[in-house]
Amino acid sequence: MNSKNKRRKTLMLFPLFLSLLILSETVTAVSLSTSAHPAPVTPELRPIASCGSISYQSIQDAINHAPRNATVIIAPGRYTELLTINKTLTLIGECPETTLLVPASQENSCAIKIIAEGVTLANLSLCNTAPGLYTAGIKIMRAHATITNCVIYDTPIGIAIWSCYTMIAHCTFHNCSDEGIALLGSNTSACSNTRITACVFSENEDGIELQRSSDNLISGCRFLNNTHAGIDMIESANTKNTVTGCGFIANQGFGMYCAGASGLEVTDCVFSSDSIMLVNTKGSIISGSDISGLQLLRNTTVIIDRCDTVDASRISTQTSQYLLLSSSSQIMPSNRHPLRGIVLTLTSRLQILRLLATHLTQLRM
């Protein structure tokens, strides 16, 4: 009897044991399956720009949230954002080789628009691949912008300047199909007091073009292999601009072309294989420079002072006048008529005195 009861209990417990065994195997299988295929982990996004201790996922977001006069640092990388800078701040990359801005704007628009005073850009490479003759890398609409240590390339206009007191230094402009830098201004407001220093312009159409611009300084720059001119001045509103300490090499049209301007000063420059053409340009002075050729057209007047490599054989004129002064101040009038020579000499000397007085006045201010 006891033996039968034991067998009966064993038979009753067997289904329960079998169910537990199956459940155990199922749990084990689920556990093994879970460990073999872990749940996906969302990767942490790399910050693109930072302002102080705060990081942002876009450069424009960092600009929008930065306080005035702050510095926004762009992490190394390649970015396609179009930027608008509407407050005074500094936007800086690691270096042009690692911080690349390569957007495409709308046709005839720009990659970076500066609409606030006192903006600084540094250590960036920039191009704008959009179509359009007036497409630009940077458009400067307000005063006191500073651009340093940047590379601007493969865009119609590298930098378009519509304001005054801009400073551009240690930048490279390459393969800009119109101009590396365009100083534009307007009919009512000249683009003035721009300083362009120690920049290189190669294989653009024009390195720098000036329109309606005055009192600008271009110094220590190199212009080479540009398809039209190193420097191109094309409006009569270009007045009292200075080019000093620059080198012009193998530009296909001219080292410098100037039409309808006045008060141009070219000092201590080397035009190793390039010529200068002045058309209807009044009251200019070229001094201490090495010039391969000088063309004077349509009532141009110019003083050539201490350019010892220049003689009459390198100067061609058409209804124009020049005064060639050697280092020993020997006066060589361009016109052999005695009276015309005296008048030209007196006029030229007066122009020198006026320019000297202007410089002294500016130094006292």
Task: Give a description of the structure.
- This protein has three helices and 36 strands.
- With 365 residues, it is an alpha/beta fold.
- The strands form three sheets. It has a 19-stranded parallel β-sheet that branches. The chain has a 15-stranded mixed β-sheet with strand order 2-1-3-6-9-12-15-19-23-26-29-31-33-35-36.
- About 9% of the residues have low confidence.
Q: In a nutshell, what does this entry contain?
A:
This protein is an alpha/beta fold and 365 residues long.
Structural class: alpha/beta
Q: Provide the gyration radius in Å.
A: 35 Å
Percent range for β-strand residues: 35-45%
User: Unreliable segments (pLDDT under 50, ≥5 consecutive)?
Assistant: 20-35, 330-345
Helix-residue proportion: 10-25%
Overall pLDDT: 84
Largest sheet: 19 strands, parallel
Please give the CATH architecture of one domain: 3 Solenoid
CATH class (first level) name of one domain: Mainly Beta
Overall outline = elongated
CATH third-level topology of one domain: Pectate Lyase C-like
Alpha-carbon distance between the termini?
Answer: 127 Å
Summed up, the helix count is 3
Write down how many β-strands occur, each being a DSSP E stretch of 2 or more residues: 36
Q: So, the CATH homologous superfamily of one domain?
A: Single-stranded right-handed beta-helix, Pectin lyase-like
